[in-house]
Write a structure and sequence with these properties.
Layout (H helix, E strand, L loop, with lengths): L1 E3 L10 H14 L3 H8 L3 E10 L5 E12 L5 E8 L4 H17 L5 E8 L7 H15 L8 E5 L5 H15 L20 H19 L8 E5 L3 H12 L3 E7 L2 E4 L6 H11 L8 E3 L1 H5 L5 E4 L18 E3 L8 H9 L4 E2 L1 H4 L2 H15 L5 H25 L6 H19 L13
Parallel strand pairs: 4-5, 4-6, 7-8, 7-11, 11-12, 12-13
Antiparallel strand pairs: 1-2, 2-3, 3-5, 8-9, 9-10
Helix pairs in contact: 1-14, 3-14, 4-5, 6-7, 6-12, 6-13, 12-13, 13-14
The protein binds NADPH dihydro-nicotinamide-adenine-dinucleotide phosphate and 2-oxoglutaric acid.
Subunit structure: Homohexamer.
GO molecular function: glutamate dehydrogenase (NAD+) activity; nucleotide binding
Keywords: NAD, Nucleotide-binding, Oxidoreductase
């Protein structure tokens, strides 16, 4: 199925996206046509991919690529492998990518992809066949100037390498800019592997300065110890924060005097088991309600919800995962004066470094790790400053999320207007 949606396409945005869009729409007095453009993806593609398994049987894996908004540039966003991935989830993630690229001020639209699979069940060969088959099915829809995938949950540089190779064997020639998050030896950027986390650390530093806290006395709990959570815990420890809890899908560990992160990294590398480290064990539910300065969901969506929002004791939330807070919980935290640094700012370091990778691929000029880190920090500090300015200047903007949506929606709609897709005259606006 390949759908260019008209204004009658179904809406599948999550409640927090819809709530925030409605709020921004009311304040900005957006026209119906403008809202339609934001509420639905431009193109949804889904393919059931048959794969021959090692035992000779054939399994079929549903897969998706959703290109949400193309006004600001080629679409950009990761590919997720997870048993529960579905079209609605990918819609929402693609919507968030469209806003995130605008918040980070990089010239991309937003997309997201996914395969409904539990990759831990697959052999290396099956994983490679599935990854290559995904590109085989979608190669006409992606490309360095159209839609550029990247890693997300359960995907990594090795998978990006197979995907680049498959794309080039189908299309002929070299096309390093078709995908980002590649290994450095294959045209990847220095620093991309940890950029989401480094970006999160830069944003948290800015926030801590803003509210006049000091890093040294700031305790943090990080849910998720994958690419984003583990590097973030490391960076925050190096910057002087006290990382008191971390977790993976099986649960977590807690030490109120601060976890020795280098020692944990060494232990985890060999055991792949947080519990073997010997610190007190906690559940993911416990972690989310710990009495810490900053709670950092860095795993999957819908973690702070109506069920646990009243028990959240943190003084602030840094959303490193996409969509970890539901709308009701977001409102509740706001009422209690707990600031939430939204996903589309907090985790924008990943796509920003992906943009740098794409620029390097396009110019064939490669940068040092130091240059990437400096440029990343500058870009994210500017993004934070832009949102602070909106918050300070506006009497109605209460939260960082509202500021981020305000900035992103304005930027996307300006681009749509310059393309002639919407008229931005007051006469067009509905009340
Ligand atoms: N990778 C990137 O560049 C970017 C990622 N993000 C977002 O960050 C989040 C994490 O992504 P990433 O680190 O790449 O993914 P990974 O697959 O590398 O890691 C995910 C982590 O979350 C844990 N986890 C999975 N399910 C649960 C659960 N139900 N409860 C608690 N923990 C769970 C996993 O545990 P286990 O290790 O045991 O499997 C793992 O530690 C996602 O929301 C992603 O969309 C956002 C921007 C960029
Ligand atoms: O690096 C990218 O292009 C996208 C990363 C991503 O999927 C995300 O920010 O959620």
């Amino acid at each position: 199925m390949d759908t260019d949606l008209g204004p009658t396409g179904t809406e599948t945005l999550c409640d927090v996206c819809t709530t925030e869009l409605d709020r921004v729409s009311k304040v900005g007095r957006l026209a119906d046509r403008e809202l339609d453009l934001l509420r639905q993806p431009k193109r949804r593609i889904n393919v059931n991919i048959p794969i021959r398994m090692d035992d000779g049987s054939v399994e079929v894996f549903p897969s998706f690529r959703i290109q949400y908004n193309t006004a600001r540039g080629p679409t950009k966003g990761g590919i997720r492998y997870h048993p529960s991935v579905n079209a609605d989830e990918v819609d929402e993630l693609a919507f968030l990518m469209s806003l995130k690229c605008a918040v980070a001020n990089i010239p991309f639209g937003g997309a997201k992809g996914g395969i409904q699979v539990d990759p831990s069940r697959l052999s290396e060969g099956e994983l490679e066949r599935l990854s290559r088959a995904y590109i085989n099915e979608y190669h006409r829809n992606i490309g360095p100037e159209t839609d550029i995938p990247a890693p997300d949950v359960n995907t990594d540089g090795r998978i990006m390498a197979w995907m680049r190779d498959e794309y080039e064997s189908i299309t002929g020639g070299q096309a390093p800019g078709v995908i980002t998050g590649k290994p450095v030896e294959l045209g990847g950027s220095e620093g991309r592997e940890y950029a989401t986390s480094l970006g999160g650390a830069v944003i948290l530093d800015e926030f801590v300065d803003e509210v006049e806290m000091t890093r040294e006395r700031t305790t943090v709990a990080v849910q998720g110890f994958g690419n984003v959570g583990s590097y973030l815990a490391k960076f925050l420890h190096e910057r002087g924060y006290d990382v008191v809890a971390v977790s993976n899908v099986d649960g977590g560990i807690h030490d109120s005097s601060g976890i020795d992160m280098p020692a944990l990294f060494d232990a985890y590398e060999s055991s792949d088991d947080l519990f073997e480290f010997g610190a007190a064990e906690i559940t993911n539910a416990d972690l989310l309600t710990l009495d810490v300065d900053v709670l950092i969901p860095a795993a999957i969506e819908n973690q702070i919800t109506e069920a646990n929002m009243a028990e959240v004791q943190a003084d602030a939330v840094l959303e490193m995962a996409n969509g970890p807070t539901t709308s009701r919980a977001d409102e509740h935290l706001t009422e209690r004066g707990i600031p939430v640094i939204p996903d589309i700012l907090a985790n924008a370091g990943g796509v920003t470094a992906s943009y740098f990778e794409w620029v390097q691929n396009t110019t064939n000029e490669y940068w040092t790790e130091e240059r990437v880190r400096e440029k990343l920090a500058t870009q994210l500090r500017e993004a934070f400053a832009d949102l602070r300015e909106i918050k300070v200047a506006s009497e109605t903007t209460r939260t960082w999320r509202e500021a981020a949506y305000t900035r992103a929606v304005e930027s996307v709609l300006q681009a749509e207007a310059y393309r002639g897709n919407v008229a931005r005259a007051d006469a067009e606006r509905s009340d």
